[in-house]
């Protein structure tokens, strides 16, 4: 008899044999016993978790010849034929290679024939999402109202690719990944039956590498038996699968935690020289610090985690040296590093940069602490770091928050007070009808002109507000703009915009003066003021440099644009 691989030899033969899908198997077993089975089922989930095996068990139970409480019995002729995959009433179809509408039409023609032996004719279509849209549409009517002797069971790893019209006609069951602890127990059970000498830690690493797939775990176990001749040790699993040993991951993560750049660089060099890929190393580190994050948050391992006693003890020792914010900071940087690795030919450098940066990190603070520190930056703090006037004499500096607000254009306390004074002056000016401008037009009349323009065309009002009227007469009104507002002048000189202003003046004064827009010449005082502003910005930038560097280090950011360049 030819050798049978472990994944096939130990395929579940009854519903209780299925690992990790207890809710699904109990529901299906009860539906068979109560004779309440649906026309069609769709099994969704990742690879190797039992979808096809459960489909065969359902087919076996439906056609079992024994009394209901014993289904499936695995003793009758029908059960034996299904187990051997020779039952002519149970047809398994590969959706990837039979995905055309013609194949489905042949299937629908055969549906009309009664089963040869059992009660039902059962069609199991694997990877059903590979069917074409016409093939799906051809199934619709038969799927909703099939002959009484027909049952459909679909299996797919990509349920989002199945048409909603198909999905709505099926009972859906979502299979989940199998926890590593269950896979470990199954491996140890099979190893005992096969007389395989396997170390528990080696079995645990096989379970982890299977990523929730029991079939993958048994395939690896088969491979390990051939490699080691039935004596499997942890180092054998590491060598065959190209894994990074947990000891090396603990060394590398320990170097990061202890901020030892030399240890991190030498450990990484040792791992890479042993033939491990930087992408795999980065993923291993992410998995390790993810475990630390969950343990720090939940306090105990979750269902998808499995550790030996020694590993759990070492993880807890590392947790005592870390805050949750530090763990999140490390995970963020390694995740970003992984993206860089995949976009460069020299894959080693981004990982080295990330590790050195993490070992040189300051104590990472939470956002709440950062904000609290910024609030505490009063004149006694960063103000003492030294602001100097043009003559190099020290000057008292405003709080950091005031400096930032003034330079970025936000209102400070002094600016708010000045604004209140300006608003009071404007109110008094409106009440003072005798405050007239040259030529007889009052300031109140000019405000009325602006209000009228605002009601007619907002953009013209915005442009005009930047100018200052310097000459009023019945024949001419001159409005001056600063050199940096030449765009406003050009916009107002267009006929359409100019006519709005002229209409406003006519409505308010009854006159039709000529409008003239001019640009003020830059004076020596203006140049001096600009130079002073530049010095002020340079001084502020220097004072805020420690704050900015600290923020970049905490949040892992970098400078995109200097908001203090140019005119504040």
Which secondary structure elements does this structure contain, and how are they paired or packed?
Blueprint: H1 6-9, H2 22-33, E1 40-44, H3 51-62, H4 77-83, E2 90-94, H5 101-111, E3 121-126, H6 133-144, E4 150-156, H7 164-167, E5 171-174, H8 180-193, E6 197-198, H9 200-209, H10 214-228, E7 231-232, H11 234-241, H12 246-257, H13 261-273, H14 278-298, H15 309-319, H16 324-341, H17 348-359, H18 367-375, H19 400-408, H20 413-431, H21 443-456, H22 458-465, E8 468-472, E9 476-481, H23 486-492, H24 495-509, E10 514-519, H25 524-555
For this structure, what is the CATH homologous superfamily of the largest domain?
P-loop containing nucleotide triphosphate hydrolases
Order of adjacent strands in the largest pleated sheet: 2-3-4-1-5
Q: Give the end-to-end Cα distance, rounded to a whole number of Å.
A: 86 Å
* Count of discrete structural domains: 4
Predict the CATH topology of the largest domain.
Rossmann fold
Q: What is the CATH architecture term of the largest domain?
A: 3-Layer(aba) Sandwich
- Biggest β-sheet: count, sense, barrel? 5 strands, parallel
CATH class of the largest domain: Alpha Beta
Mean pLDDT figure: 80
Radius of gyration over all CA atoms, rounded = 39 Å
């Amino acid at each position: 008899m030819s050798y049978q691989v472990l994944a096939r030899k130990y395929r579940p033969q009854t519903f209780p044999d299925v690992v990790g899908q207890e809710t699904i198997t109990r529901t299906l077993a009860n539906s068979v016993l109560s004779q309440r089975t649906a026309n069609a089922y769709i099994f969704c989930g990742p690879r190797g978790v039992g979808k096809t095996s459960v489909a065969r068990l359902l087919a076996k139970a439906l056609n079992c010849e024994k009394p209901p409480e014993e289904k499936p019995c695995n003793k009758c002729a029908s059960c034996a034929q299904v187990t051997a995959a020779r039952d002519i009433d149970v047809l398994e179809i590969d959706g990837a290679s039979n995905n055309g509408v013609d194949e489905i039409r042949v299937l629908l023609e055969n549906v009309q024939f009664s089963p040869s032996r059992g009660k039902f004719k059962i069609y199991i279509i694997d990877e059903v999402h590979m069917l074409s849209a016409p093939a799906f549409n051809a199934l619709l009517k038969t799927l909703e109202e099939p002959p009484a002797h027909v049952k459909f069971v679909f299996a797919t790893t990509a349920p989002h690719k199945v048409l909603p019209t198909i999905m709505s006609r099926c009972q859906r069951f979502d299979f989940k990944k199998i926890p590593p602890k269950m896979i470990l127990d199954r491996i140890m059970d099979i190893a005992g039956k096969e007389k395989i000498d396997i170390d528990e830690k080696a079995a645990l690493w096989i379970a982890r590498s299977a990523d929730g797939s029991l079939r993958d775990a048994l395939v690896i176990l088969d491979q390990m038996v051939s490699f080691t001749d039935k004596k499997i040790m942890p180092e054998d699993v590491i060598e065959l699968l190209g894994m990074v040993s947990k000891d090396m991951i603990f060394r590398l993560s320990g170097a990061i935690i202890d901020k030892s750049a030399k240890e991190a660089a030498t450990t990484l060099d040792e791992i890479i020289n042993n033939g491990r890929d930087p992408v795999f190393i980065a993923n291993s580190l992410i998995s390790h610090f993810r475990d630390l994050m969950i343990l720090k948050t939940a306090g105990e391992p979750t269902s998808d985690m499995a550790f030996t006693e020694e590993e759990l003890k070492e993880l807890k020792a590392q947790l005592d040296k870390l805050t949750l914010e530090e763990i999140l900071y490390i995970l963020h940087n390694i995740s970003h590093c992984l993206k860089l690795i995949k976009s460069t030919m020299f894959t080693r450098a981004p990982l080295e940069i990330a590790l050195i940066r993490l070992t040189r990190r300051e104590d990472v603070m939470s956002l709440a602490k950062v904000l609290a520190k910024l609030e505490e930056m009063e004149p006694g703090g960063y103000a003492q770091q030294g602001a100097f006037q043009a003559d190099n004499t020290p000057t008292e500096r405003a709080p950091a928050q005031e400096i930032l607000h003034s330079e970025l254009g936000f209102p400070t306390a002094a600016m708010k007070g000045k604004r209140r004074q300006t608003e009071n002056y404007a109110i008094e000016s409106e009440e003072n009808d005798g405050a007239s401008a040259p030529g007889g037009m009052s300031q109140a009349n000019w405000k009325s002109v602006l209000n009228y323009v605002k009601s007619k065309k907002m953009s013209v009002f915005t442009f005009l507000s930047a100018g200052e009227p310097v000459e009023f007469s019945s024949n001419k009104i001159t409005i001056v703009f600063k050199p940096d507002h030449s765009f406003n002048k050009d916009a107002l000189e267009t006929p359409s915009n100019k006519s709005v202003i002229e209409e406003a003046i006519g409505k308010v004064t009854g006159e039709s003066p000529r409008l003239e827009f001019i640009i003020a010449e830059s004076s020596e005082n203006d140049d001096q003021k600009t130079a002073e502003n530049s010095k002020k910005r340079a001084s502020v930038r220097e004072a805020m440099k420690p704050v900015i560097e600290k923020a970049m280090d905490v949040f892992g950011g970098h400078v995109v644009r200097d908001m203090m360049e140019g005119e504040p």
